Amino acid sequence: MKFPLILLTILQLHSITQPGNENLIEKACTSTPNYALCISTVAADPQSAAAANMEEIGLILVEAVKGKAEEALSTIKEMKPTSPEYRAALEDCRDAYETVMMADVPEAVTALTRGVPKFAEFGMKDTAWEAEICDRRIGMVAEKGTLRDVNKCVQELATVACGIIRSLL
Amino acid sequence: MGDSFCFRKRNASIVVSLASFFLVSLIPFTIGRPISRGTAQGVSEKVFRLGDLNFPWTNAVLSWERTSFHFQPSKNWMNDPNGPLYYNGWYHLFYQYNTEAAVWGTITWGHAISRDLIHWFHLPYAMVPDHSYDINGVWTGSATLLPDGRIVMLYTGSTNDGRQVQCLALPANLSDPLLLRWVKHPANPVLTPPPGIGYTDFRDPSTAWLAPGGDKWRIVIGSKVKKTGVVLVYETADFVNYELLDGYLHEVPGTGMWECIDFYPVRLDSGYGSDTSANGPGFKHVLKASLDDDKHDYYALGTYDAESNRWTPDDPGLDVGIGLRYDYGEYYASKTFYDQKKKRRILWGWIRETDAERVDAIKGWASVQSIPRTVVIDRKTRANLLQWPVEEVESLRGESFEFNDVMLEPGSIVPLHIDSASQLDIEASFEIDEDDAAATGVDSGYNCTSSGGAASRGLLGPFGIVVLAYKHLSELTPIYFYIAKKPNGNLEYHFCADESRSSKALDVSSPVYGSSTPVLKGEKLTIRSLVDHSIVESFAQGGRRVITSRVYPTQAIDYPSKILLFNNATSARVKATVKMWKMKSAGIRDFFSLDQAL
Fold first, then answer.
1. Do B52 and A140 touch (CB under 8 A)?
2. Are B406 and B578 in contact (CB under 8 A)?
3. Element (H, E) at B582
4. Interface membership of A144 toward B (CB under 8 Å)
5. Residue A107, SS3?
6. ipTM of the complex
7. pLDDT tens digits for range B328-355
8. What is this structure's pTM?
9. Helix (H, G, I), strand (E, B), or coil: what is residue B63?
10. Hey, are the CB atoms on B356 and A129 less than 8 Å from each other?
């Protein structure tokens, strides 16, 4: 249902990428467990046209993870806890995403730019874990909701980032 | 094509708050389903969770996690051990350190000294990132002690333009036994990536050894060519100018980037270590690599032909990267040095945290070093090394407790009465009843990591010790053997460490680690285990297999923590003997107190 829409978007955006760059993006995204998400994430980043190597594709994904983590933090800020358990869960989620912003994402960016992808893998694996922990905590007090969707998106994006990073090891 | 949460539109917020209100008002607590950690952690389901009740970390529980006799700085992040050496009365340890945070970042060389490898004193940083060639990190390196008493330190610099280069540093003052200050050589970088090698695939220079002829030195640096791990060899007379030798010391396809190469001789007929330059008929050479791909340290025994500069494994089926590991738990970036004082080869290894980064940020620290281990060839098998905690760790032993010939019927658990089980040195031996073993049938086979741990019962196992256990066994860490009888009647032995129920907390890893281990005829099954708060280092069969575990219990801490013997085999009785000692703290602290300005 959603796939044709994505494909269309991809095709549209591909027309503005660097010649030869499509192969790089294709190679990057086939090494991940979620090709469609990878392609659409890269295509949505204006930097992707200039990406010249796999490290830069990795950095695009890490930047997307960072954007989603920021979205998680602002979602958490807007939520109104209706019980002590709910408040505690939101605090844990806030801690989790603050760690992603303050530790995991900077670690991944530093590692990718300095050629030790191992530490970028640690950073993105932890990001997926922090999102999962938040989701387990908030799942005890809220079955559905924006934050739960954002949590799962962070996990998916971080996993895609890991796929690209692992191809650099 | 799969749907993705990243493509979904945001729910209308009014729907969210209505749904949340409804759910919250109905069910304050739910019994949690076991949930996969998924690809992020890759461990098996936790089936023992009583509920998804949140465990909030308290200061008491987190501060308990700090080790008492393992090396760690007072705060922040540490990784690889660097440049270990013995010089002028002191053992030196340098290490990768982030001065800013409890996560990896821009790295500085930390420095500590000890008389006995156990009681450490922190010194000021040895090297900081302050030149264009190491401004992005003073990375891993090794020391070479020259016959004339000089010391050369080679290390990798992460440059201002993101390349990896090798650099030389010398002690500012060789008559300073503390080796406080180091001077970076004006010729730095002394090595840049050669043609055909990626400029970010060139790091971790080794200790040097004498080339044939005795007038030049050789060092090794790991790398990769596509997915083949390779070892580059350089020759030098002055450690400033180098010649890249033809070909690789060795290579193994499919193993990826080789980090932290270590290359050293072991004597076939002796329990002593050897100087790194030793070679000859009575020697084998160990080649070791840290594999970037799977974050494990692999080694192999082989023969080094210095003339052709090639190393050949004794068993190509157990080559570097596809065969034996130093340690089947959490252990990486290890490095040895020759201790000329006691004629030992000593091994250091970096032990990461396996809890979520959020907890490390609260704790304010991350990582410890293993207890240094002696390394010798296993003279009984000649096919593997033996690692053993340095004997100096025994100086921390205090009150001892002995339990002899404890009979463990199938399905039994025996508490060993000792208060406070956070700091222990445990030596345990086990004998399975021979008649029981002979009478049982064939086992379908065993693998520690996929077994489900100590709770999965078999005919002839699991049995062993349980450390850091809480009453009612709501938290426990079994370290055990499992024996599987093969169709030909032979017994296959496995040694495992089970973290699946070590902690009730959500944000810690919970794998089962381990491996099969050779057990020779007539040998009892032995475990030595050093328990030091959140780290447990366990040695089977005198160090033939080793497993390092990080555990983060929430209740099995301090006085309530317990130690037990157990036998979960269904068909065999086991006799156990245990001797254990409470361990004192090593009191690691700063060498210079605050009122002693440098």
1. yes
2. yes
3. strand B574-583
4. yes
5. helix
6. 0.91
7. 999 999 999 999 999 999 999 999 999 9
8. 0.92
9. helix
10. yes
